Amino acid sequence: MGYLKYIEVENFKSYRGLQLIGPLKPFTAIIGPNGSGKSNFMDAISFVLGEKKNCLRVKKLSDLIHGAPIGQPVSNRAHVTAVYCNEDGTETHFTRLVAHSSSEFRIDNEVVSQDEYLNRLEGLRINVKAKNFLVFQGDVETIAMKNPKERTVLFEEISHSLEHKAEYEQLRSEMIKAEEDTQFSYQKKKGIAAEKKEARLEKEEADKYQRLKETLAERQVVSQAFQLYHIQRDLDSLASDMASKTNELQRHVRKKEKIEEEVRDKRKEHGRLQRDMAKIEQQIREADVELNKRKPAFIKAKERTAHMQKKLEAARKSLKAAKKVDETHQGEIAELEKELEEVAEHMQEFEQQLSQESQGRDVSLEDSQVREYHRLKEEAGRQASLHLQNLDSVRREHKSDQDRHDNELRKRNEVQAKLKQKKAELEENVRRVDKLAEQIRSSEASLEELRRQEQEVSQDVAAAKGRVAEINRELEALMNELGDAKVDKHEDSRRRKKAEIVDHFKQLYPGVYDRLVNMCQPIHKKYNVAITKVLGKNMEAIVVDSEKTGRACIKYLKEQMLEAETFLPLDYIDAKPLKERLRSITNPKNVKLLYDVLQYDPPAIKRAVLYATNNALVCETADDASRVAYDLGDNKR
Length: 637
Hints:
Elements: E1 3-12, E2 15-21, H1 38-48, E3 77-85, E4 91-99, E5 102-107, E6 110-112, H2 114-123, H3 139-145, H4 148-159, H5 165-360, H6 367-508, E7 512-515, H7 516-519, E8 520-522, H8 528-535, E9 542-544, H9 547-560, E10 567-569, E11 592-593, E12 598-600, H10 606-613, E13 617-618, H11 622-631
Parallel strand pairs: 9-10
Antiparallel strand pairs: 1-2, 1-3, 3-4, 4-5, 5-6, 7-9, 8-12, 11-13
């Protein structure tokens, strides 16, 4: 066995210049006070054996140069050389240099890579990574404080058993697989006895089921054809009804538009009448105001009229009395005039006689006669003057009474004319108010009738729309049924084509098995949903024995321009082995591998089933699934 003979140090940490340490003995102890360089000597050995800078108590490699930590490096490089004495007595020089921040490795002064340098050391059973060759201060205590698992890892690293970990894991997985195969074979052996016992009954039941299925398919075809015939006939009838209802709806819509136009016109007319009525009401109010204003004058005039009528009656009575007096006066006047005429005649006769007598003789009157004559003449003149004065006075009174009578008659006629005019105006206003009220009632009746017609038309339109909506819903339901029937028909056709494709593949390529869904069945129907969810797109996948067979099938699909398919080549898919610990989950209860609730045949498709299930678990409830997914540790899942 070789040994370390010398350590050559140049400008490394506290060692300035070139220093040769050795020869070293099989057991060499270095003692000295603190700061004398013991640890730096250990760092030099660690450095030349390939340790990283974090194990050398520096932040960068340039700090290994003497004086560099205080900013006064004595050189721009440093090196450490280990002289190893081989079993045959030859020496091998291992040198590691540091220049600036880079490191260089040499063997016998020949520059080599780090990997080659470390491999050469490992050839001499010097493994720095094992951490058993260089034991630093505190490492013994650290190893003593490790737990069994950590010490096991350390021993495996020291013994290089970690290099065989991959092989061990592979052999262990093969062992688990062999155990699983054994367990599966045992379970299958147990199940074969029961399956064999039930095989004959299942075959008979399957034959019966197949016959019933064929009969059902034939009757379904007849039933669907019958339904399609009646659906088509109903569609034609509904289309005709919908056309007629559409025409009726359009007619009602036009009628509604016409009525709406009439309603708008009537509303305009109603508005105009309302405006006229408002004007008339305003005029009536103004007339009422005017009437109220004139009412006192009317009452006053009425009172004056009554007073005048009373005065008129009094005047009439006075007139009548005056007429009587006048008649009396007229009689008296007539008598007086008659008397006057008689006196005048007598006077004339007397004068004529006197004249005649005077002409025949000289008439001489006595003084007494003359005085009597003059007295009589004065008396006659006086009485005549008195009668004339009385006559003039009576005439003046008569004229005055006549004037007053005429004036009162004129005033009475004026008052009666005004009263008659006001009565006529009042009657005219009353007639206008009645006429306007009648027009308002007529307009309101017409408006109410139009509103009723509009409501009827709206109800008819709403009913027509409801009927159209109902017909559309019925039509949509029929179209959906027809679509479902077409989809079912298309799906049946698609399934037949897919089955024909698989049958054709089986004839062309012996390595084609079948679709995965056709070769797997759950042990109980309650797992149907879980299986469908997990298998997903792999349910319709075609299982083949090899990648070559799958590529040949894909090429055939492309050449024939058929629908794309998914293939599961047994020699190509990455099927993960079952995790046995998942079968030991007891809380929550009834947690099972999906693989364990599937029955598949033939056994050769096991890898495809493992690939599709992928260690999926089936739980009774969603809460159980949540607990398994989030609460159980990784060591249990």
